[in-house]
Specification:
With about 350 residues, the protein is mostly beta strands. Helix content is about 10%, strand content about 35%.
Length: about 350
């Protein structure tokens, strides 16, 4: 089991949130500790000292998404006198002084007597992802810190939710007027529906988030930005004049960016289909509305029975990506219990404190 030091945790969080790029050391060094609990996150363990001891350079093979391991044996100089019992190891940014980066325990302790060399086999020092960190993030971060392989800070971060069926709600690409059609059930009955060129409904989109500089191993959310999609043409001004040609309001509203500091808020999902393709007309407040009976997906119309509601369902997980659509998954966590957003017009709100990033 290995862990990042407090110092490296701060660098990690600042790098991944775009607050400060991490400058990796050109080489890393293996050190030994005689503390029975090993080195601590705050580097308070007792390192071997004197009697011929010196940290030794250690190298690592290319990281995968699930692990990284040393790729050459490390042999310490012969001791000129007993050095005590070695319990754990640390990886440092310098042969002397420098920062503790990672630390862990050997599978068994060993006393180093006079005229002995402490030997660490190739592959004996290894690290795996921990906490909410996902494979892509682990691979790039470990290659950066242990092999000095360049990895630029993500340009932006986006929060996604995952339903209890394991997928994100359907999303709408306004530019191309297409849907994510990986789940036809959600496309037709849940959030993110579209109909017609240059039109959009309020519905699911990933929410852009920013974080404050890290402190005490945690990066708190600074802001979230909800792209609250208007009902109709986003390029036109808001107008509630009735459009008799299309049997709808001329333009219910434009896209609005809303910034929050106390929460992440996903857009409202309305419960009726306001564009006429068929169905019975109803009246409300002196205005006629016709529920939409079809939804356009990839140029084809699919029948929707009147009364189907659009909602998020049950949110099981949250995910943080480096892109608004697609992109690389960086962090993932669970909602316990599930977040129920099962009513039309519900807004999914997540407190900012639930989105704080923790290094491990």
């Amino acid at each position: 089991m290995a862990a990042m030091s407090d110092t490296l945790e701060i660098s990690f969080l600042d790098h991944v949130t775009g607050n400060a790029a991490y400058s990796a050391p050109s080489a890393v060094y293996l050190g030994l500790t005689t503390s029975s609990g090993g080195f601590t996150d705050g580097n308070t363990g007792t390192e071997v000292v004197g009697n011929g001891y010196q940290r030794q350079a250690i190298t690592f093979g290319a990281s995968s998404t699930s692990s990284i391991a040393s790729n050459a044996a490390v042999t310490f100089p012969r001791s000129t006198a007993g050095q005590g019992t070695v319990y754990g190891w640390g990886i440092f940014s310098g042969q002397s002084a420098g920062d503790l980066l990672y630390h862990g325990m050997f599978s068994s302790s060993r006393a180093v007597l006079v005229d002995e060399s402490f030997y660490v086999a190739s592959g004996a020092i290894s690290l795996t992802p921990s906490g909410a960190m996902q494979g892509h993030l682990f691979q790039n971060w470990s290659n950066l810190t242990l092999r000095n392989v360049s990895w630029s800070m993500p340009a932006a971060l986006y929060l996604a939710i995952c339903l209890d069926n394991g997928t994100e709600p359907s999303w709408h690409d306004h530019a191309s007027n297409t849907l994510d059609s990986s789940d036809s059930y959600n496309d037709k009955r849940k959030a993110g529906l579209i109909n017609g060129a240059n039109e959009t409904y309020g519905g699911y989109q990933r929410v852009k988030i920013t974080f404050n500089s890290a402190s005490n191993g945690t990066a708190a959310m600074a802001t979230s930005t909800t792209r609250d999609a208007g009902r109709w043409d986003n390029s036109a001004a808001r107008s509630t004049t009735w459009d008799s040609t299309n049997s709808r309001l001329t333009n219910y509203g434009k896209t609005v960016l809303r910034n929050w500091t106390d929460r992440v808020e996903f857009p409202i999902v309305p419960n009726t289909y306001d564009f006429v393709v068929g169905g019975a007309t109803t009246s409300s407040g002196g205005v006629d509305y016709t529920p939409m009976s079809h939804v356009e997906v990839g140029g084809s119309l699919y029948t929707i029975s009147n009364g189907y509601e659009r909602h998020y369902g049950y949110a099981a997980d949250y995910k943080i990506f480096d892109a608004e659509t697609g992109g690389n998954l960086l962090f993932q966590g669970e909602f316990d219990p599930l977040v129920q957003v099962n009513d039309a017009w519900d807004v999914l709100r997540i407190p900012a404190s639930d989105i704080a990033l923790v290094a491990a």
